[in-house]
Amino acid sequence: MADDRSQRGGADRRTVAGDEDYEVGYFARKHGLTVEQAQKLIDRFGNDRATLDDEAEKLTK
User: Fold this and answer.
1) What is the DSSP string of 18-33?
2) Of these four, 6, 7, 20, 45, which has the most CB atoms within 10 Å of its CB?
3) 3-state class (DSSP) for residue 15
4) Helix, strand, or coil here: 60?
5) What pTM was estimated for this model as a whole?
6) Residue 39 · residue 45 · CB < 8 Å
7) Which residues pair with residue 15 across a beta bridge?
8) Which of 54, 50, 26, 5 minimizes the C-alpha distance to 39?
9) Predicted pLDDT at 11
10) pLDDT of 13-48, one tens digit each?
11) Are residues 28 and 60 in contact, defined by beta-carbon separation less than 8 angstroms?
């Protein structure tokens, strides 16, 4: 289900909903982070999935 029901499809998938526990948890598991680490990344870099993926990769190297 879309986070914002007025925005469905690919555009919604480009972001991580930082206020949704299941999305933060998924992002954390995907990158081998704790939920706290994932939330800090979202708070610091925003919710753009590509940016967050890049920053998470830097953390785990």
Assistant:
1) TT-HHHHHHHHHHHT-
2) 45
3) strand
4) helix
5) 0.77
6) no
7) 48
8) 26
9) 61
10) 788 888 899 999 999 999 999 999 999 999 999 999
11) no
How far is Cα 25 from Cα 11, in angstroms, rounded to an integer? Answer: 20
Is residue 28 within 8 A of residue 13, CB to CB? The reply is no
CA distance 13 to 9: 7
CA distance 31 to 54: 10
- Which amino acid is located at 25 in the chain? G
The confidence score (pLDDT) of residue 17 equals: 87
d(CA 5, CA 26): 20
Of the candidates 34, 31, 19, 20, the residue with the CA atom closest to the CA atom of residue 58:
31
Reading the block at residue 33, the tokens are 């982070």
**More confident: 47 or 8:** 47
3 or 30: which carries more pLDDT confidence? Answer: 30
